[in-house]
């Protein structure tokens, strides 16, 4: 066996060993639709190779901490997002801010089971887009989550975050630089989702 073959085998086994030792670790809260709150926390610590189909989200992201990175911007507190789209999110937020849309707060990665059909105990069964680090909430105190809101009006009922005021610059609309930048990188706005809820702070692959 020549030296090239030895080096090739050595590299192969080193990569295989690294894959085997890579760990998926995260903690996820579980939302209960009857209690209308998180009722427990699931803690995961396992080989990365054991990730399930439900743990694979948009853009190839997972809820594993090893796949999440910190995004640092001078105008907002740091937050985490999936490493595969973090630079795009950072660029979009920066462009929007310096184009005149003031950004005061951003929330990205947070692991929770808050989607999907409830089980027999009324617990949600699917990870949210935030759990994959592929969703962000921007200016929560000025762009709330509303229900009874097929179409935006003052009759919509605020259930989370701050009241929406279209006279303020930090309020997200279809004409905001932020809206344009998020759309450019493939994220949809929760203010345009179908149904009774409108999540005006939220951007993700589907808007939900």
Number of helices: 3
Overall average pLDDT: 92
Give the SSE string: HEEEEHEEEEEEHEEE
For the biggest β-sheet, the strand order reads 2-1-6-7
Termini separation (Å)?
56 Å
What's the gist of this structure?
It contains 3 helices and 13 strands; from the N terminus they run H-E-E-E-E-H-E-E-E-E-E-E-H-E-E-E.
Describe the protein in words:
The chain has 208 residues and is an alpha+beta fold. The protein contains 3 helices and 13 strands. The chain has helices at residues 3-21, 86-98, 177-184; strands spanning 23-32, 37-47, 68-73, 76-82, 106-107, 112-115, 126-127, 136-138, 145-147, 157-160, 188-189, 198-199, 202-204. The strands form 4 sheets. The chain has a 4-stranded mixed sheet, with no helix packed on it. Strand 1 (23-32) and strand 2 form a beta hairpin. Helix 2 packs antiparallel against helix 3. The radius of gyration is 20 Å and the shape is globular. It starts with a helix and ends with a strand.
Break the fold down into its secondary structure elements and pairings.
Layout: H1 3-21, E1 23-32, E2 37-47, E3 68-73, E4 76-82, H2 86-98, E5 106-107, E6 112-115, E7 126-127, E8 136-138, E9 145-147, E10 157-160, H3 177-184, E11 188-189, E12 198-199, E13 202-204
Parallel strand pairs: 1-6
Antiparallel strand pairs: 1-2, 3-4, 5-8, 6-7, 8-13, 9-10, 9-12, 11-13
Helix pairs in contact: 2-3
């Amino acid at each position: 066996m020549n030296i090239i073959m030895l080096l090739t085998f050595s590299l192969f086994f080193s990569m295989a060993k690294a894959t085997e030792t890579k760990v998926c670790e995260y903690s996820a809260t579980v939302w209960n639709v009857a209690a209308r709150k998180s009722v427990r926390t699931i803690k995961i610590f396992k080989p990365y190779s054991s990730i399930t189909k439900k743990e694979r989200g948009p853009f190839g992201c997972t809820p594993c901490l090893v796949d999440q990175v910190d995004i640092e911007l001078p105008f907002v507190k740091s937050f985490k997002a999936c490493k595969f789209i973090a630079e795009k999110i950072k660029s979009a937020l920066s462009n929007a801010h310096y184009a005149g849309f003031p950004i005061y707060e951003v929330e990205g990665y947070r692991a929770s089971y808050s989607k999907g059909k409830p089980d027999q105990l009324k617990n949600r069964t699917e990870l949210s887009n935030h759990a994959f680090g592929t969703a962000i909430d921007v200016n929560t105190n000025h762009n709330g989550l509303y229900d009874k809101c097929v179409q935006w009006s003052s009759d919509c009922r605020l259930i989370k975050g701050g009241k929406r005021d279209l006279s303020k610059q930090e309020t997200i609309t279809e004409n905001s630089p932020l809206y344009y930048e998020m759309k450019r990188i493939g994220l949809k706005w929760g203010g345009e989702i179908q149904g009774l809820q409108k999540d005006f702070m939220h951007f993700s692959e589907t808007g939900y």
